[in-house]
User: Fold this.
Amino acid sequence: MQLPEVELNIYNKNNPVEAKIVENRIVSKESSPNYVRHITFDVSGTDLVGRVCVGQSIGVMPPGEDEKGRPHKMRLYSVSSPSGGENGNPALISTTVKRTIEEYEGKIYLGVASNYLADLKPGDSVMLAGPSGKRFLLPEKKESYNYLFFATGTGIAPFRGMMLDLIRSGCSGSVALLFGCSYRTDLLYPDLFGEMEKDHPNVHYLTAVSREDRRADGSKKYVQTLLEDQRDLLQPILEQDNTLIYICGLKGMETGIYRELLRMGLPGYLEWKKDAPEPESLESTLKTLTDSELKKQIRTTERVFEEVY
Ligand SMILES: Cc1cc2nc3c(=O)[nH]c(=O)nc-3n(C[C@H](O)[C@H](O)[C@H](O)COP(=O)(O)OP(=O)(O)OC[C@H]3O[C@@H](n4cnc5c(N)ncnc54)[C@H](O)[C@@H]3O)c2cc1C
Assistant:
C-alpha cells in the first residue's frame, strides 16, 4: 500500500501565516456543555492553498503569553475538510475544535488555544503553521480499500474529511465510522454522517454513547464493544485483505480496540512481538496485561493508522 507524498511545514512556528476565519459553528445537534465547533480558515494568497491534506494537522499560534511571559506555544488541530478544500475550495481548510475547560483546586482553567479559536468570528485573523503529519493519511488508491474509522470526541475531525474524500472518489468498498462519546448530545456532525449512510449503502454510521446506551448484558457501550455487538456487519469487512483501520481521538482508546481485534482472531492488523498466546489462553492473557503492557507486547501492521492525543 502506497501513501501519498504530502508537504510538511510549509510554515512553521517561527514563520506562521495569517488566515481569516470564514465560519465558526457548533457541530452537535442538541445543546451540549461540550462545545465543539467547526471552524473554517481562508488561506487565500498563502502557500497553504491546495497543499494541505486531510489526515494532516495544522498549527495554531494563540496570541499572548503564558504565566512565565513566554509566547504561547503552538497547538495542533486535525484537518476536517476534504483534501480538495471545504466545499471544493482549495483555499478553505477546516478543523473541529473542542473548548477545553478544567477545574483544579476550585479554580476554572480555560485551555488557551481551543477557547481562543472557539471565540473567533468570521473576518477575524489567526496565525497558522504546518501542515504536519505524513502517516495518518488515506492511501494513494483510496477507492480500492474498505475502511473502519474509530473516533472519540474531536477524533472525528479527520474522518469527516476522509469520508467526504472517499465518497467523492466513488469508493465502493465498505466505509464504517464507529463514533464514541459520553452523551447523545455530544454526537458530532450527526446529520452529515446520517445522510452519508442514507445515501450510500456502503457507508455505515455506528455510535456508542457510553453513559446512555447499554449492551444486551447491561454493560456500557464503547467504540470497541461495537466490534462485538455489530460483528455480523464488521467481521466480514475486517476479514478482507484490503481493509484498513484508522483510530483517532482520546489517548488510550486504541488498547480497547486492540483487545477486541485480538479476541476476534483477525490476522493482518496486530502482531505479537514475541510468541502469541495459545488461543485457549488468550482471554486470560488479555485479562492479565495492563494497557501499557499490552502495547509493549504487540505492534500494529501497516494496515492500522493511529492519531491519539
Ligand atoms: C496531532 C494532534 C491533533 C489534534 N487535533 C485536535 C482537534 O482536531 N481538535 C481539538 O479540539 N483538539 C485537537 N488536538 C488537541 C489540541 O492540540 C490541544 O491540545 C487542545 O485543544 C487543548 O489546547 P488548549 O490550548 O485549549 O489547552 P491548554 O491551555 O494547553 O490546556 C490544556 C488543559 O489543561 C487545563 N489547564 C490549563 N492550565 C491549568 C492549570 N494551571 N491547572 C489545571 N488545569 C489547567 C486546560 O483547561 C485544558 O483543559 C490535537 C492534538 C494533537 C497532538
Notes: The first strand starts at residue 17 and ends at 26. Residues 156-168 form the longest helix (13 residues).
